[in-house]
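User: Please predict the structure of the protein below. I'd like the answer in structure-token form so I can feed it into my own downstream comparison script.

Assistant: Understood. Taking the following sequence of 417 residues as input:
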Amino acid sequence: MIGFTEKEAMAIPVEERSTQPGWSVALRTAAVLAAAMGVGRFVFTPILPLMEAQAGLSPQQASLLATGNYLGYLVGAVLGILVPTVSRSRPALQISGVVLVVTLAVMPLVHDVATWVALRGIAGVASAVVFMVAGNTILTQLARSAAHLVGWAYGGVGAGIALSGILVAIVQQVGDWQTAWWSAAALTVVLLAIGWPVGEVGRRRAVPAAQAGRQERHLGLFGLLSASYVLEGAGYIIAGTFLVAAVHATAPGWLSAGVWIIVGLASLPSSALWSRLSSRASRPTLIAGALLLQAIGIALPALSESPAAAIASAVLFGATFIGVTTLSLATGRQLGVSSAVAILTAGYGVGQVAGPLIVAPLLGSGYRTALLVGAGIVLAAAVAAGLMRLRFPLPGRAGTSTPIPSTPTPSTPSSSA
């Protein structure tokens, strides 16, 4: 969904392309992604130290809350596969947005871990639906715009992360963990209001059979892509959940409050930058490189307690995780697999559910070992992406795309099967 070539953009049916100004669509989709992902999903990361200190939440319980959210995200992604209209519908986005706000606002009203897990699970379903609707809107309405518009639209996730980090840093000076959740709900309302018109209304026009069959599917390559993306989901979410808490345990207070803001600021322009690079190198190469950098970033706070290591970790993590997502979704579409966005999102959800569960037994002694495990999983994802690269041709000149080999790899299972 990022870095489309002109040839790929032209393959999108004319009736799906938008006549709205590109920047208007980019702003609206960025706003809903900031609401659903940057705040709705990830505000728990900077709030976690407050809940540990003020609400008595243990690391193991925090892992349960994270798993509940990621399980809900998986359910939402599967819903998008089973009911494809959900992943494009404006009413689905709007209903999910309202549900998300309610779950954020109710979190401070209860003090039961099971209820918290349930609320975060419902929020995960809502976030997945909003992400898919926004993603498909970007695909259909920005694909023929300049690539940097697609990148800036996805940069909304980074903007939301930065805003949530700033919000919690301010709130913790004047309020408590409950105020933080209520403030997050209010911020989500504002962002959703900006992006309220995102999505399709009514039934989508069917693509003619001749047009739908124009692109060949490459299931073997898609299987490798899916494996890499599942592993990335498991590895990155360990850092996405526990990075702030890990830094908070060893670093000065100003750094633990600011590390999530740094993640958001680093991720804000990252999709646009990776998009520009995708016109000069193959997407599998870029995915593998980004994953390698991300693995280093995740491991740094576990290897060093210095402020420099924490800052470098935040920059590397923020600069890569959204880029990996958007490059992977674009590759899925390039491989001609129907419902690639929903399938890959579901696989990502599986990884995100598994990640906190894998490291939960290790959290009794702190977060350092968990971060090293996360880095190892992301490194494995880089290897899978590198294997996919072996079946891709070298790209042509900047801005061109060389066809993918027509023979899929038979030995690799496909996620779409």
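That's the full token string. Residues 1-19, 206-215, 394-417 have pLDDT under 50 and may be disordered.
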